[in-house]
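Hey, can you fold this one?
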Amino acid sequence: RLIREAVSEHQRSVKGVRPAQKSRQAEYEERLTRFGQLRGGGLYYPYLASGLGNGALVELADGSVKYDMISGIGVHVCGHSNVDLIDVLVQASVADTVMQGNLQQDVNSLRLCDELVTAACESGGKLQHCFLSTSGATANENALKMMFQMRSPADRLLAFNNCFAGRTIALAQLTDRPGNRDGLPTTLAVDYVPFFDADDPQASTARSVAALRAHLARYPQRHAGMCMELIQGEGGYYAAPREFFVALIECLRKEDIPVFVDEIQTFGRTTRLFAFQHLELDEFVDVVTIGKMSQVCATLFSDELKPRPGLVSQTFT
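Sure. Predicted structure:
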C-alpha cells in the first residue's frame, strides 16, 4: 500500500508535456553518448526514461515529459507506472517468482499456464499445452523446434512477405528483412508467400494461394510449418480477412503442414484475447506464441506438437 501511495504521489508531477530542465540537459546528453558507446551503437531514439510515468505520459531523465507514441512496441500497453500493475509486481516479488526455472516451478506458473490454455481453447481451439519463456524470440524458437521435430526430416519453412519473427540467428533468417541478417550464415530455408492486398482482395488471395501451391510442389514434404502474422506489424500494420487465411490453410492441411500463428504483437490487441479468435480460426491453429504486453511469453501448442524430452527448456520463466 505504501509503495502504491508513493508512486501515486510522484505521478502528480507528471500531468502533461513539459520541456527538459536546462540544468540536466548536459548530463543527459553525456548519458546518451555513454550508453551508445557501451552498446556499440547509438540509440535509435535519444530516449532515457527516469523510471516514472503516468499512463501515456513518460518522464525522461532530463526532466522532460512526453507522450509515448510507441508504447514500448506494445510492452507498456497498461501505461507507465500503472499502480494496479505495481500491486501485482509487489505480490510477485515476495512470491519467489524471480526463479521459475525448468527444475523449479511454483503455483504461479501453473496458474498462468492454466489460464492461457483455457482462454486459447474457449472457442474450439486445440492448444492444450503451454510452455513459458522470457522472450518472444524464445517462444518463436520453441514453436519452430516443435514443428521441425514433428515433421522431421522437413527442413524448410513458409512465411509471408515482410514478416518479422525475431532477431536470433534462426529468426533473423525467417524475418523478411535482409538487413537483419547481414553477415549471418544461412540457417533456415524459407519460402515466402505474398500477403493480402486490401486494394485487390480477390486477385491477391489467388496470387498467394498460387505461390503457396508452387512452393509445396517444388519442395514436396519439405516444409515443417507456415508462420503467420494475422496482422503484420513490422511489415506495416496490414490486416487480412478470415477468407484469405482459410484459403491458404486448406492448402496446408492437404499436406499436413502445421499452422504457426505468431501473436507476439497481436496478443490482447484485437476484439478477442487472441487474434486467431478474432478471425475465428480456432480450429485451424496448431501452435501460437504470445509476448510483449503479456510481459512473460509463451508457446501454446496442440497434442500433435508435444516435444520429446530435451527439445525445449528455460533457465528463467
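The radius of gyration is 22 Å. Let me know if you want another pass with a different chain boundary.
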